[in-house]
From TrEMBL:
UniProt family annotation: Belongs to the HARBI1 family.
Keywords for the protein's UniProt record, in alphabetical order: Cytoplasm, Hydrolase, Metal-binding, Nuclease, Nucleus
Signal peptide per UniProt: none
Natural source organism: Petrolisthes cinctipes (Flat porcelain crab)
Ranges of residues in domain DDE Tnp4: 143-295
Pfam families to which the protein is assigned, alphabetical: DDE_Tnp_4
Protein's name according to its UniProt entry: Putative nuclease HARBI1
Length: 356
């Protein structure tokens, strides 16, 4: 007896909402952190790489792929992407986010939005902006590390446990006075000290190491970094007078990086909690793409939505962003050799010249 013929069931496609045309710019910013023009700008950056070669089975458009990815970065929850009237299934959402993040995190895309000042004109502009904060001269950026929580990786798990006993990526970031990111390094396990990340970075080995930045311009960092001619740190035990004045101006100016990290994590909530994706290389893509999108928001003067306006579950929103210690401060490395005197002597001369 012949087996009964199987009747193929028609596929059931969910309706996809045309949010770009149905929502206002204010609503788009609340849900996706960018206005319509900004979303189209990001889409055009990667359109060729994320466009499907066929229209079969209602292929997801580049605009929809970018919207799904932005929604995930804004909320940190993949299930909100598929349940957001956008239409794609959970499986499609995961595939789309992976594809879009890979396209956006390419060096040729990122390099368009991270511009470290190396010309005399650009350095002067950055320094003027910083000097208006507390009168500290010659500053072109403030540097710090911040930890982004991740799930325990399968390989080299112990290396990702930071000093606060959770798994993380230690991210080095440099902000200018307008809270725009000038440079970001997102690839080191949480156990690696800030000073080592700097030592191995292109900032140390290329930008400043090869003299690309004009003399007299500096970064400001905390006492976890070594003091250099181009990286000024605070005095651990300042004397009354110029050293104390220097420390006060240094702290007020350096607060830019802590507030900047707070802005970045508030804008993209995926960086607040535990990023539950693997491998860690994909986590690093997420961090760098969020930083790039933050700069695009700055370029377009898009403000961060207030906590009460963010369209996310209320219990997941961390309060008091501006005052929360989001940047994990680290103690200095144990001294294994005398600290280089050149940077310390330069700092003394700098203080005597500018803070007498």
């Amino acid at each position: 007896m012949a087996a009964p013929m199987r009747i193929r069931q028609p596929r059931n496609f969910r309706d996809r909402k045309d949010v770009l045309n149905e929502l206002s710019d204010a609503e788009l910013i609340k849900r996706y952190r960018l206005d319509r023009a900004g979303i189209m700008l990001v889409t055009d950056l990667v359109r060729e790489r994320i466009t499907n070669q066929t229209e079969r089975s209602r292929a997801v458009t580049p605009e929809m792929k970018v919207l799904v990815t932005l929604r995930y970065l804004a909320t940190g929850k993949m299930q909100l992407c598929s349940g957001d009237d956008l239409g794609p299934s959970q499986q499609t959402v995961s595939r789309v986010i992976t594809e879009t993040l890979f396209a956006l995190s390419r060096n040729e895309i990122l390099s368009q939005y991270f511009k470290f000042p190396v010309t005399l004109e650009n350095c002067h502009t950055k320094a003027v902006d910083f000097q208006q904060i507390a009168g500290f001269p010659g500053v072109i950026g403030t540097i710090d590390g911040t930890h982004v929580r991740i799930t325990a990786p399968k390989e080299f798990e112990a290396e990702y446990v930071n000093r606060k006993r959770y798994h993380s990526i230690n991210v080095q970031v440099v902000f200018d006075a307008t809270y725009r990111i000038l440079d970001i390094v997102a690839r080191w396990p949480g156990s690696v000290h800030d000073a080592r990340i700097l030592r191995e970075s292109s900032l140390n080995q290329v930008v400043f190491g090869r003299g690309m930045v004009p003399d007299g311009y500096h970064l400001l960092g905390d006492s976890g970094y070594p003091c250099k001619k181009w990286l000024l740190t605070p005095y651990l035990r300042p004397q009354p007078g110029p050293q104390s004045d220097y420390n006060r101006a240094h702290k007020k100016t350096r607060n830019v990086v802590e507030r900047g990290i707070g802005q970045l994590k508030r804008r993209f909530h995926v960086l607040h909690g535990e990023i539950r994706v693997t491998p860690t290389a994909k986590v690093c893509q997420i961090i760098k793409v969020c930083a790039m999108l933050h700069n695009i928001c700055k370029d377009r003067n898009i403000r961060i939505p207030a906590p009460e306006d963010i369209d996310e579950p209320a219990e997941d929103i961390e309060e008091d962003y501006d005052n929360a210690p989001l940047a994990v401060q680290q103690p200095p490395l144990p001294p294994v050799a005398p600290r280089p005197r050149e940077g310390l002597l330069y700092r003394d001369e700098f203080v005597n010249l500018h803070f007498e």
